[in-house]
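Write out this protein's structure.
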Amino acid sequence: MISLLIFGISILAGSLGAILGIGGGAILIPALTLGLGIHIRYAIGVSIITVIATSSGAAAAYVKDRLTNIRVAIFLEMATTIGAVIGVSLTGILRPQLLYVLFGLVLFQSAYAMWKKKDSTHLSSSTAHPWANYMKLNSSFLDPAIRQHVSYSVLRVPLGFLMMLVAGMLSGLLGIGSGILKVLAMDRAMGLPIKVSSSTSNFMIGVTAAASAGVYFQRGDIIPELAAPVALGVLVGAWIGSRLMQRISAQKIRKLFVAVLLVIAVQMILKGMQ
């Protein structure tokens, strides 16, 4: 029964993770720790598997639909991979209570920043950063929700790269895939539309998580009996979420992102203060 419950939770985590580009770990960790009483050490370990599964299930669909900006993803992945290795080396130093609070604060800040930004039209005439022009990062996509072709320019590339380095560190430290900060960096710092940010984040999070998964496995933080139903559920959820995201408007995705992060942030901070 517990395995079936974990499987169901994982489907939900995979669906929301695919829609929001957060990998599912931000949903799964609170559910396992607060709902089922699993130690955060093992919840973080299995969350790495969740992130890889979500990325595998959703990334292919987004690339096929040309939502993912592959050039942006490859460029920023250098920063997140380096940061992930640094983050993993810090996990043995921090106490579980501090991990709860840090995780909650990161989510709360992300939600606040996303709420402040209003949806706007990203035009091809926007002033792109010189690096974006040199690396040909600017692109466009067809949004089925509004039935329009949306062009966008990539802004503030160095700032986005720096934020991705921090995102990678938090990925290795908290096991969340750093999707929340990836979306935040691309949406706010680099000016990408929310759908492009989400789909590109899904493409990237699996690589970042894989950089630290081996370390968690060697330490015994990944329990196969827990990882199996989670991986299967997340794959199913990611398949569902990748199809729903195409039909949801950017404004609704942003509101959903903020709502999910606020609820989880409050829960995790309260848990860390106990």
